[in-house]
Amino acid sequence: MDALYDTMQDVPDEVKTHKRYQKLNNYAMKELSEEVEKDAGPIDILVHSLANAPEVKKQLLETSRQGYLQAMSSSSYSFISLVNAFGGKMAPRS
Fold it and tell me: Which end of the chain is more exposed for a tag (fewer CB within 10 A), N or C?
């Protein structure tokens, strides 16, 4: 999964053709949630645990504004994206 992308349409061509992703499909939130639903059916528990960004190894005061915004996108906004993609696929509460 790549938490920066809500759908595969959001993935830039330079990422799709990067050697890390070339042989992969459906690694954006929406498509991944559809694959999980197809393979496992409704899910009972959804855990969000993510902290990643390109500048994560830098000292705090060396972090650029762009690096900070990328960290917030991948580490915080990804929770909203995750719930949006998987929320409707949760098993009903009993």
Answer: C
